[in-house]
Design a protein that fits this description.
The chain is an alpha/beta fold. Helix content is 41%, strand content 12%. The longest helix is centred in the middle third of the chain and has 17 residues, at 93-109. The radius of gyration is 20 Å and the shape is globular.
Length: 303
């Protein structure tokens, strides 16, 4: 709890506090400043964690291979399901198929603890579309596209073609949404989501330092568009908790709709426990915490 009542208060204030504590509480309402919150401590779904398969695909120096370390961290944090993300490289079709097979197999061996997030490179054209059909037939539900790491422009027609194919196959597209050297990226993602209404999008990191621009999705929602977009708050929640703009970030969650916000750790960038603690410290109600930490992902992904 960020704000505590002073130890020395008048008898009248103490009486009012006691009476307030006896009154029923609306768990769906925004938290009043200084109010006590019984944080959500149930099961968590982590929609953003990276799988390291070999020597050249580590996200950081501390990124352990396989799932042993992530499973340990998930157990400690109360995570019941976690994404395992891999990333395709342009023109390396054999490698793309091999890593997709590996992440699908790893998820199956986990008996439901993990789910695979496969990848293609949009610039691989028809081969990418064929790979999407193949992984969908193998049970994949989510595809990762990363404009930074994969070095493509969201406005490239090849991206629209791949995204449309994902919609036809029922695949959710997890898009990294922070590209500091492309100030127009959020607008491009907004346009793409409108042009591909049958595809479900998750915008990872919620635009990060450009998160204010996501309110455009709420605005087009008034016109019946943009309802196919969710926002994962990996990295951004841990960055802005306890910051001067924390309240604005939470206001943005609620403006978009708390049912559109997904928990992610971005492991190994943050551990699941650190990321979940940040969500609990943002000032969300227990009901909102449950939506973000579990229910929204469960509904979107059928977990």
């Amino acid at each position: 709890m960020k704000h505590k009542l002073p130890c020395l208060v008048s008898g009248a204030v103490m009486l009012l506090a006691a009476l307030s504590a006896c009154a029923p509480r609306d768990e769906s309402a925004p938290k009043a400043e200084g109010a006590a919150v019984d944080d959500y401590r149930g099961a968590i779904i982590d929609t953003h964690a990276h799988l390291r398969l070999g020597d050249d695909d580590a996200a950081s120096a501390e990124h352990a291979k396989g799932t042993v370390e992530l499973l340990r961290l998930d157990d400690a944090a109360g995570v019941e399901h976690s994404a395992l993300i891999v990333m395709a490289r342009r023109g390396q079709l054999e490698r793309t198929r091999a890593q997709n097979d590996a992440v699908i197999s790893t998820a199956k061996e986990s008996q439901g603890r993990f789910y695979p997030v496969v990848s293609v490179h949009p610039a691989d054209g028809d081969a990418a579309l064929a790979e999407l059909a193949r992984v969908a037939a193998l049970g994949a539900k989510v595809v990762k596209l990363h404009p930074n790491t994969q070095n493509f422009d969201v406005a490239d027609p090849a991206v629209a073609t791949a995204v449309q194919k994902c919609g036809e196959l029922g695949l959710v597209v997890l898009f990294d949404s922070y590209k500091p050297w492309d100030p127009g990226e959020m607008g491009k993602l907004l346009l793409l989501s409108i042009q591909q209404p049958k595809t479900r999008f998750v915008l990872a990191h919620m635009g990060f330092s450009a998160f204010r621009e996501t309110v455009g999705f709420a605005t087009v929602g008034k016109l019946g568009m943009g309802g196919n977009v969710w926002f994962d708050i990996s990295a951004i929640a841990t960055t802005y908790v306890d910051s001067p703009v924390e309240a604005e970030l939470v206001w943005t969650f609620r403006t978009l709709g708390i049912n559109k916000v997904l928990f992610g750790s971005d492991w190994p960038v943050d551990t699941p426990a650190v990321a979940a603690d940040a969500v609990r410290r943002l000032g969300l109600t227990p009901a909102e915490q449950q939506r973000v930490l579990h229910d929204n992902a469960a509904e979107l992904l059928g977990l």
